[in-house]
Amino acid sequence: MKTVYWTEWARGPNLPRSGKTVLLTARMYQMLPYIMQVTGLIASAKPFVSRSGFGAMVNLGNRIMGDKIIRLKSLGSKNIRSKSKKILLGITNALSTIGQRPAYLYEDEPYSGVLLYDLGLDEYIEEHIVKVYRLLKRHNVKKVIGVDPHTVFMLKEIYPRYIEDYDIEVKHYLEILSENDEALKKSCKKSLENEFVIHDSCYMTRELGIIEQARSISASLGITILEPGNTKLDTACCGGPIEYAFRDLTEKVSTTRIQELANISKNIIVECPICLINLSKYEKEMGIKVWDMGELLLEAF
Amino acid sequence: MGVDQGQAIRETLLKEIGKCRACRFCVDVCPAYQAAEWVENMSPYGRLQILKYLINGTLNKDDPLVYSLYTCLQCGRCNRVCQAKGQDLEVSNLVRLGKYLLSQGLVKGKKSEKV
């Protein structure tokens, strides 16, 4: 297997390389160490960019060394790297418990293009979507199991707008697991009897309508879910989507949200990589623990 | 973006923004507006007004105000409130379309040009 950063986690589960159903991580969890470094570098460079002459220097520096610096610095983000692996392993273990063993595209696995969509760069989205769709068809993919709400939203809601006769079924893994609640309950090796407050993702609830699934799966694992004031369809944003450009604003948004959650429980469940990275940065400072649903699944199975 | 497509988006945006009754329910629920300590151009209603003035030429692409469009988190809380209390506008998608119009200039490096 050719090793690229997004396939490291897949050595253990040894998923088949081809099949009609594929698990599409879209590299989202695997990219977290790099996202942390990129947003950090942008924030450090921002005060200089507006000064006359510095903008061009920063741009040149980025072209020459940017990629190398980000890759090197991200090697130090061991915690988030190991967390990402655990999450993806937890998801595959849980799927395997209910008899689902999807294929994985390994080094061919594409990114969904959701950032282009968020930024309104539609002319680039079309090109990207066509490329990804052709790749999926080349691998004879009929069904995609997504692990994050942004990718599922793109493949389910946006891709069909650009592809005539779009014929790929798209589901989030929480939907699949919740359809097999009873099997999950029976196979649960370790009951996680604890109270957790849940942070719903904006895309998961308001765009995809996936709300009760995380709750029913949590109940199968023995977890008691506590609801914050802003929850389900009225959930509050973690601040993540604008971190690349407005770090101060993002921090204010995420601080407000984490305080609301931490007032209810020190154990917080999230179900999205962007929420995970934005809320888990307060773990030390506030004495809390932010768990992705995938990590809990790894504990249970 | 072809001329026709750009014109179609401008018309769609003006038509949709015209439906806004300025009830401002979307303003209070916007996390970016709350974090920006009540600066209205960083609220859904404010962004729609900026878009309107950008399209009719009162604002230019390089006006700092237009960057407020990029403070939208695309979280969709405004859509939900508008659906329940207002005119059922897809506010966050209108803002996204506005970013699309803007990106044509930003990506190609045009400045001081009317959208």
Describe the 3D structure.
The complex is a heterodimer of chains A (301) and B (115). With 301 residues, chain A is an alpha/beta fold. Chain A has a domain at 189-300: Rossmann fold, CATH 3.40.50. Chain A is built from 14 helices and seven strands. In chain A, the strands form two sheets. Chain A has a four-stranded parallel sheet with strand order 5-4-6-7. The longest helix of chain A has 21 residues, at 54-74. The mean pLDDT of chain A is 91. Chain B is mainly α and 115 residues long. Chain B has one domain (3-108): Fumarate Reductase Iron-sulfur Protein, Chain B, domain 2 (Orthogonal Bundle). Chain B contains six helices and no strands. Chain B has helices at 3-18, 25-29, 31-35, 44-55, 77-85, 91-108. In chain B, helix 1 packs across helix 4 (44-55) and helix 1 runs antiparallel to helix 6. Chain B is globular. The mean pLDDT of chain B is 87. Classes of the chains: A alpha/beta (301), B mainly alpha (115).
Taking all Cα atoms into account, the compactness measure Rg of chain B is: 14 Å
Low-pLDDT segments, ≥5 res of chain B: none
How many separate helices of chain B? 6
Largest sheet of chain A: 4 strands, parallel
What is the highest CATH level, the class of one domain in chain A?
Alpha Beta
User: How would you classify the helix and strand content of chain B by structural class?
Assistant: mainly alpha
Quaternary form: heterodimer
CATH architecture heading of chain B: Orthogonal Bundle
Mean pLDDT value of chain B: 87
Domains of chain B (count): 1
Main sheet overview of chain B: none
Strands of chain A, total number: 7
User: Biggest protein-protein interface?
Assistant: A-B, 26 and 26 residues
The helix count of chain A comes to: 14
- CATH topology-level fold name of chain B: Fumarate Reductase Iron-sulfur Protein, Chain B, domain 2
Which fold name corresponds to the CATH topology of one domain in chain A? Rossmann fold
The helix/strand order of chain B is HHHHHH
